[in-house]
Design a protein that fits this description.
The complex is a heterodimer. Chain A is low in regular secondary structure. Helices cover 14% and strands 5% of the residues of chain A. The relative contact order of chain A is 0.08. By secondary structure, chain B is mainly α. The chains are: A little secondary structure, B mainly alpha.
């Protein structure tokens, strides 16, 4: 039997406290740039909370109520939003590789300029949401409600890779390899930091060679 | 009842008629819209029966809802929902990370060599030199 301080709780009190803890409220909380990596926040109420730039990677937010919250620039890598209510939330410019929105309610959400590679929008309610210039390579939408979704035509679902290497293109090119899923699956590593850095350095040195400046003078 | 009161009553009834007519027109428009939606739904169902897919839905103003990528089988959905890391090419997350780090180190060394004016870094040459030194 759990004991809190001097008070001994019976089974009913304990279940009540558990229920309160399960549905605890952080309505309007200011969690800007908070580090919430791997936290188990299942069923939490974060309605109208400020989560700008917060790190929620590997966070468990299943069945949470997060209406009209601000997730701008947040890191949602592998965050689990299954069954959560995200109505009218702002996810602009957030990063969410492998984010799980299974059976979540995300209507009227703002997904502007997000990077959601290999995210799962399975059975998600996305009505009236805005996907302006969203990067959705490898994301899947089985059974999603998409009535009146806005700017989906500006979102990216496929990449074209050059056979000679180099950066990807978003428009189809003859002879180029089309990929519809991230090469790394839902794992996120530093894939862009060191990509062909030496080649870029060579080009920079060729362009701004000091020998050429000497010749001009 | 005098004449004035009767005239006032007629005016009042005329205004009521105008309001009801406006409401009726609005309701007629709504009925038309709902009939259009019903027709649209039947078209989608017919499309599903004939082609096996719902196709592209056209909205007002030339806007279209595009067909979004989906998993083809239920097994794929279950595997994705299990939340396990899905490295491509049969390599695990650890192996992929090691390969990335090795490539990053190689690229960084090459960049340093280029900046310092030395010859480009070659991993094979480096390995040969190390072997020769060890011997």
């Amino acid at each position: 039997m759990p004991i809190i301080g001097k008070q001994t709780l019976n089974r009913e009190d304990f279940s009540l406290n558990l229920h309160v803890a399960y549905k605890c409220s952080l309505v309007g909380a200011n969690l800007e740039r908070a580090d919430l990596r791997g936290k188990k926040l299942r069923g939490i109420n974060l309605t109208a909370a400020n989560l700008r730039g917060a790190d929620l990677s590997f966070c468990d937010l299943r069945d949470a109520t997060i209406i009209a919250a601000d997730f701008s620039r947040a890191c949602l890598y592998h965050t689990n939003f299954a069954g959560a209510d995200l109505s009218s939330s702002d996810m602009s410019m957030s990063y969410g590789k492998g984010t799980n929105f299974h059976k979540a309610v995300a209507n009227s959400c703002m997904f502007r300029n997000v990077i959601y590679k290999n995210a799962l929008f399975i059975d998600t309610d996305l009505r009236k949401s805005d996907f302006f210039h969203a990067e959705l390579l490898g994301s899947r939408f089985n059974g999603a409600k998409l009535d009146r979704v806005r700017n989906m035509d500006t979102a990216q679902f496929e990449w074209w890779l050059s056979p000679w290497g180099g950066p990807q293109e978003y428009a189809p090119r003859p002879g180029w390899l089309k990929i519809d899923s991230s090469m790394m699956g839902n794992i996120s590593l530093q894939e862009n930091t060191t990509k062909s850095i030496s080649g870029k350095m060579k080009k920079v040195l060729e362009t701004f060679s000091t020998d050429d400046w000497w010749k001009d003078e | 009842m005098n004449r004035e009161s009767i005239e006032l009553r007629i005016d009042e009834l005329n205004i009521r008629k105008a309001v009801l007519t406006r409401k009726l027109r609005a309701l007629e428009k709504q009925i038309e819209h709902v009939e259009g939606r019903i027709e649209e739904m039947w078209e989608w169902l017919d499309s599903w029966k004939e082609k096996g897919e719902y196709g592209v839905r056209a909205l007002e103003g030339g806007v279209k809802v595009m067909k979004l990528p989906e998993f083809k089988t239920q097994a794929e959905i279950q595997r994705a929902l299990s939340g396990e890391p899905q490295a491509v090419g049969g390599a695990s997350e650890k192996e992929t990370l090691q390969a990335r780090e090795a490539r990053g180190r190689h690229d960084a060394q090459e960049a340093v060599n280029v900046l310092s004016g030395q010859s480009p870094y070659d991993e094979d040459d480096d390995a040969d030199n190390r072997q020769a030194n060890a011997e």
